[in-house]
Design a protein that fits this description.
It contains two helices and 22 strands. By secondary structure, the protein is mainly β. It folds into two domains: 20-165, Galactose-binding domain-like (Jelly Rolls, Sandwich); 172-322, Jelly Rolls, CATH 2.60.120. It is globular, with a radius of gyration of 21 Å. Residues 1-16 and 324-333 have low confidence and may be disordered.
Length: 333
């Protein structure tokens, strides 16, 4: 009797969605070892690929001893989603590093691919989805490029799925994929520097820079819509919490910095939300804008580790953030 009751409970749990989950992605995926850029595209035909159970190390699914590149692909129905909602993709834990494409567009990456390999096997993958990338009228294609250097490889654990995210009250949401490099240069580096990809917000230790303490530059380009209205209010750049110190530039102009000058263990800068006023006329509508952030980390985790991340009005920040309400999109459920 007890055994039957336990089985019933497990069955019920298996069909109840995880909190906030709109589409469950655990189960059968398409899989192929090797590496070709065309495998990221939605139009590529993968009918001759292997079927593989996810999550599970690929060594446990018939590819014992394989280290190197491999790809996963899976479709989901966008008609099950609402244009009124915002979403993120949770892909659990991947060994070692990954690049994730949705309908052919890169939406996230963790770790670093060869030749400058860095593992991110300890980091849970949560990638923001831009609604403009989603097809709400039919199939959407997720393609995941994975590199594994040793031991278990692939999507090894987690509750994979498309999850609903709290509504963002940002006028311009800047969470997601940024550029990153480790250097101490005091001035912005520009587009020609040797950049890698990094997710923001998330500590850089979780993205292939384990135990790294020192300097790092973040860079993000974005376009301000021509319809963007400043509504005669003060506009601010919100960069969440940064460990430990930062200097922040917008379109080459220093707009803010945080550094209490205290030594490691005594500084409280890491726990301060960065909110910097954007001078009138500095944001350019209809063209590319650039944010560059120099971070100095003294120990423990480092980087832009917690949101919210984006551009909003001063009054909106005061109304929703300063009063510690959780209405903004800054943490995943």
């Amino acid at each position: 009797m007890r055994f039957s009751f336990l089985i019933l409970c497990l069955l019920l749990l298996s069909i109840v969605n995880v909190k906030g989950q709109a589409i469950r992605l655990n189960g059968s995926w398409k899989f192929r070892v090797g590496d070709k850029s065309t495998w990221a595209t939605a139009s590529y035909v993968d009918t001759d690929w292997e079927d593989i159970r996810v999550p599970s190390a690929w060594e446990d699914e018939g590819f014992n001893g394989y280290d190197g590149f491999a790809w996963y692909r899976k479709k989901f129905d966008g008609k099950r989603l609402s244009k009124e909602e915002t979403y993120y993709l949770n892909l659990g834990y991947i060994d070692d590093c990954d690049e994730v494409y949705l309908n052919g567009k890169l939406i996230g990456a963790s770790g670093s691919m060869p030749p400058k390999f860095k593992t991110a096997y300890q980091s849970e993958r949560k990638y923001t989805i831009d609604n403009e990338v989603l097809n709400f009228n039919g199939d959407n294609l997720i393609a995941i490029r994975v590199f594994d250097v040793t031991q278990g490889g692939g999507i090894i654990d987690g509750e994979l799925g498309v999850y609903r995210a709290p509504k963002s009250r940002m006028l311009i949401d800047l969470a997601g994929l940024w550029q990153f490099t480790t250097t101490r240069n005091e001035k912005p580096l520009g587009a020609d520097a040797e950049w890698t990809k990094i997710m923001v917000p998330s500590a850089w230790e979780h993205q292939g820079y384990f135990k790294y303490d020192g300097y790092g530059w973040y860079r993000k380009t974005f376009t301000v819509p021509t319809t963007f209205s400043e509504k005669e209010e003060e506009i601010v750049l919100v960069l969440g919490k940064i460990d430990d110190f930062d200097k922040t530039y917008l379109n080459g102009k220093l707009i803010g910095e945080t550094n209490d000058g205290r030594e490691y263990g005594r500084s409280g800068s890491y726990d301060r939300t960065r909110v910097y006023t954007i001078p009138d006329g500095l944001l350019k509508k209809g063209v590319t804008n650039v944010i560059e952030v120099l971070v100095d980390d003294m120990g423990n985790i480092g980087g832009i580790y917690e949101g919210p991340i984006g551009i909003t009005t001063r009054s909106a920040y005061q109304r929703y953030f300063k009063n510690s309400l959780e209405s903004f999109f800054w943490k995943y459920e």
